[in-house]
Design goal:
TIM Barrel, binds iron/sulfur cluster, alpha/beta, 45% helix, 15 helices
């Protein structure tokens, strides 16, 4: 059996292609994990190098009109104290991130109607005066809104598909449609963004077959960044009593994604770190990840941005986080990216 797994991994390394059945088989193979992780680490090294790119994350509003069943920011969670930062406060935080040495600023929020396209364009333009890449993670918008942000200078957009299974998607996202999420991602692609997507691993009723289809979707889209995180049940959501996602399964998904999309940027997500506080980030970086997002939102707001519970380092100051991470990266024999860390997958596309 091991030989079969090794053959599949070799095929993935050599061709970047696996069938749906082959991906499913490897996802279910706990005893192939070490081989998979080793191969993904090697592919990562050859394809994108040893640099780990750091992103400064600003969570500027926890208000959201959507009601995703797994998320603590969902509209129906009345117990959460809501906040948003005014435009100039977001810009100040971004400037602080730049002073701390970040070459990319990630602006993340719930779907907050206060932040109209014009307000976002103002923020983006101001931040772009600092010679940094701007990534947005602000949800489903119209093509016109995406165009406005892009014209204002936004470089990247993160919008996870979470699951490509129509039934599961509908169950997890009341009032939203998978087709619209896909429309957003393809609009973003056509507008020239570096497009990030990804999945939640371990959602209730999710199967390996469904995750295999997610991975094939990432390939079909030509994703430039892929964020993967285990599902972590939040007490103030309808999924509070569900079992959470499995760390090792998430690691296998990450490794497989690296094998099949070698040039994409893959973050070591905080959700991985939440499940394994001491080693989650290191293990993800050792299984194909090459990006880490660090929160630069002030300490008093951080605890209120609870997509899921138990987020690590919620009480640390931004610079403490960063210095600890830099040490961790060096201890792994990796280097800290000094550039904006543009996705190689995206670079290749625009050169075609
Ligand atoms: S996942 Fe995003 S869109 Fe859904 S409720 Fe949470 S913040 Fe809102």
């Amino acid at each position: 059996m091991k030989q079969t797994y090794q053959e599949l991994i070799t095929k993935a390394v050599n061709t970047q292609q696996l069938t749906y059945e082959e991906i499913t088989m490897l996802l279910g193979a706990g005893d192939a994990q070490q081989m998979l992780v080793r191969a993904a680490d090697e592919v990562r090294r050859k394809a994108v190098g040893d640099d780990v790119h750091l992103r400064g994350l600003i969570e500027f509003s926890n208000r959201c009109r959507q009601n995703c069943c797994y998320c603590g920011l969902r509209r129906d969670n009345r117990g959460l104290e809501r906040y948003y930062l005014k435009e100039d406060d977001v810009i100040d935080l971004a400037q602080e991130a730049v002073r701390c040495g970040y070459r990319t600023v990630v602006l993340q929020s719930g779907e907050d109607a206060y932040f109209t396209a014009d307000r976002m364009a103002y923020i983006i333009r101001k931040i772009k005066e600092n010679d940094v890449a701007v990534t947005l993670s602000i949800g489903e918008k119209s093509r016109e809104e995406y165009r406005t942000y892009r014209e204002a200078g936004a470089n990247r957009y993160l919008l996870r598909i979470e699951t490509t299974n129509e039934k599961l998607y509908a169950k997890m996202h009341p009032g939203q449609e998978l087709a619209n999420r896909k429309r957003c991602l393809y609009d973003l692609k056509e507008l020239g963004y570096e497009v990030g997507t990804g999945s939640l691993i371990g959602l209730p009723t999710q199967t390996d077959e469904m995750i295999a289809k997610d991975i094939l979707f990432f390939k079909e889209l030509g994703a430039d960044m892929i964020g993967l995180g285990p599902f972590i049940p939040h007490d103030d959501t309808p999924l509070r009593a569900e079992a959470g996602g499995d760390f090792d399964k998430s690691l296998r998904v990450l490794a497989l994604v690296r094998l099949l999309l070698p040039y994409t940027n893959i973050p070591a997500t905080t959700a991985m770190e939440t499940l394994r506080p001491k080693e989650g980030r290191r293990l993800a970086l050792g299984a194909g990840a090459n990006v880490v997002m660090l929160n630069v939102t002030s300490r008093d707001r951080r605890g209120l941005y609870q997509l899921y519970p138990g987020k690590p380092r919620a009480k640390d100051e931004p610079m403490e986080d960063r210095l600890r991470l830099e040490e961790e990266i060096r201890a792994m024999g990796r280097t800290i990216g000094m550039t904006q860390g543009v996705s190689k997958a995206w670079q290749q596309e625009i050169n075609e």
